[in-house]
Specification:
Structural class of chain A: mainly alpha
Order of helices and strands of chain B: HHHHH
Distance between the termini of chain A: 20 Å
Distance between the termini of chain B: 42 Å
Number of strands of chain A: 0
Low-confidence stretches of chain A: none
Largest sheet of chain A: none
Low-confidence stretches of chain B: none
Shape of chain A: flat
Mean pLDDT of chain B: 88
Structural class of chain B: mainly alpha
Helix content of chain A: over 70%
Largest interface: A-B, 36 and 46 residues
Largest sheet of chain B: none
Number of strands of chain B: 0
Helix content of chain B: over 70%
Oligomer: heterodimer
Number of helices of chain B: 5
């Protein structure tokens, strides 16, 4: 695998690690109802992203 | 790349354990939200793998099927948790069986992959799912 490809994947994974930290820390300032709404919206987005993944 | 995913799993578990000062209802909802976020991350990592040629079409399709099943099971889990909460239940014992059903829902429907590369993408999501029960069981609140 080319170094630039390894770097690209590495940056994607690193971005997602940071996104996970931001997500978990961000929940502390939200009410439970707000977290429910956020998770509902995320699941809808995930469904769309899965369709896009399959279309690649 | 498995090293990065191991870091992701460890961070998720550490944050779940750190966040164990909440009530069982909130713990269940936060756990469900964490699973949604883990799926979102796994989709992006899978797309990156596919674009780089690390995943082929079959591996991408297996991953997509897994993400779909986890998302459907997670939506059902969250609805059940909110429903039980609205019925007035507050204790750990009210929410743990729902979390167990969530785990069973995924295990009974999700594709099993012997492919190490595909399994590594599932790992972070599996940890998030298993962390839901852990977070509920560790939550403060009634029985």
């Amino acid at each position: 695998m080319k170094p630039e490809v390894i770097l690209a994947i590495g940056f994607t994974v690193l971005d997602e690690v940071l996104a996970m930290i931001k997500h978990v820390k961000g929940q502390s300032s939200l009410t439970t109802a707000q977290i429910v709404a956020m998770a509902d919206a995320q699941d809808l987005k995930n469904k769309e992203d899965i369709k896009a993944l399959l279309a690649l | 790349m498995t090293r990065f995913q191991t870091i992701l799993v460890l961070i998720l578990l550490a944050l779940l354990i750190v966040g164990c000062t909440t009530d069982p209802y909130r713990a269940a909802i936060q756990g469900s939200s964490d699973v949604s976020q883990a799926v979102s991350s796994a989709i992006k990592i899978t797309a990156s793998y596919y674009s780089a040629g690390t995943f082929n079409d079959a591996q991408k399709a297996t991953a997509a099927k897994y993400f779909t099943i986890v998302t459907d099971c997670n939506v059902s889990f969250r609805k059940s948790v909110v429903s039980v909460h609205n019925e007035g239940h507050t204790g750990v014992s009210a929410f743990l069986p729902i979390a167990d059903s969530f785990v069973s829902c995924v295990r009974n429907s999700a594709p099993v992959s012997a492919d190490a590369k595909v399994a590594s993408v599932f790992k972070a999501i599996d940890s998030a799912i298993n962390g839901v029960s852990l977070a509920i069981a560790s939550a403060k609140g009634g029985q």
